[in-house]
Structures are given as C-alpha cells and as structure tokens.
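2024-03-11 09:14:02 INFO worker-7 job=invfold-0412 stage=load source=structure_tokens
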C-alpha cells in the first residue's frame, strides 16, 4: 500500500473535490509524506459516553467549546479535549488516511488520538487531544497539530457511509 508523497498530495489538491480544502498555508502544511491539519476549535469533554454493540445505543460525550484568548492562545490543564480541524478532507474511494500527532506535541507531553480516515470519507474531522504534561499545554488557534498520512488502497472500496460522513461541514 503506497504512501502518497507531498507531490502526490499537491496533485490531488487540484482535483474536484480536492483531497483537502480549507487549508491555511499550503507550503507549511504539505509535508514530504503527509499533510498537517490545523486547529480550529477546542472543546472540553463534560460527560460520559457509551459505545454498545448496536450503533443505535451509542451516546457521545457532551462537549463544551472553550474560548481562545485575544492573542489566539488557549491554556489547557492536564486532561482530555476534543479538537476540530480547519480543513475538510475529501478522500477518494481508493485512498485512506491515518492521523499522527506532530512530534512537537509529543515533546510537550501532549498526544492526539485519531481513528482511521476511511476511503470515501468527507468531512471536517475531530480528534482527541490529551494533555499528559502535569504543567499543562499552551496552543494557538490555527497551529498545525496532526499530520495525515495518505495511503493508496490496492483497489477501490465501497467508501465510508458511517454516521460521521459530512461532519462539521
């Protein structure tokens, strides 16, 4: 399963729909082996959630949006947060993606938890940001926090058709 290069990503950004839209600085965000997603929103997790055998019994945790200060920064205490990205991803049915935290976050004691971006998925994704550092973490709106790595499938899939298709668009 080949990983797309920065050159492949730039080519797919010219498609309709583009592989990724809503980016802030293409030269900063396209990497040799991926694409950096930037921070749009941070929300605190305020309740328990439920995952069951049936999706009908799924209950997502309540979220409470947090405000950035006038300088664009937000100070986060240790804990878990839901982040929403600026960019909207449009994956063709033959490309999937995995998200990984940027190494600078890890060096600050912060991790980004992601799921698989299935082939055929379109939306403005969310991920879990966990501040492990006991001293907290300071992050600015629009900072690059997650790198998407795109992989070409051996064939075309039927495409994602789950509950999060078209989320936050």
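2024-03-11 09:14:09 INFO worker-7 stage=emit residues=169
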């Amino acid at each position: 399963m080949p990983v797309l290069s920065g050159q492949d990503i730039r080519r797919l950004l010219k498609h309709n729909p583009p592989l990724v839209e809503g980016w802030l600085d293409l030269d900063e965000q396209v990497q040799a082996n991926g694409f950096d997603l930037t921070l749009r929103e941070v929300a605190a997790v305020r309740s328990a959630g439920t995952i069951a055998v049936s999706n009908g019994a799924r209950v997502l945790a309540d979220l409470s949006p947090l405000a950035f200060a006038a300088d664009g920064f937000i100070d986060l205490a240790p804990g878990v947060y839901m982040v929403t990205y600026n960019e909207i991803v449009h994956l063709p049915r033959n490309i999937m993606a995995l998200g990984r935290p940027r190494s600078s976050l890890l060096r600050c004691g912060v991790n980004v938890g992601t799921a698989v971006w299935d082939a055929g998925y379109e939306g403005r994704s969310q991920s879990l940001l966990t501040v492990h550092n006991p001293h907290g973490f300071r992050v600015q709106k629009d900072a690059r926090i997650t790198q998407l790595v795109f992989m070409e499938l051996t064939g075309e899939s039927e495409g994602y058709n789950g509950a999060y298709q078209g989320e936050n668009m």
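2024-03-11 09:14:09 INFO worker-7 stage=report msg="The longest strand covers residues 34-45."
2024-03-11 09:14:10 INFO worker-7 job finished
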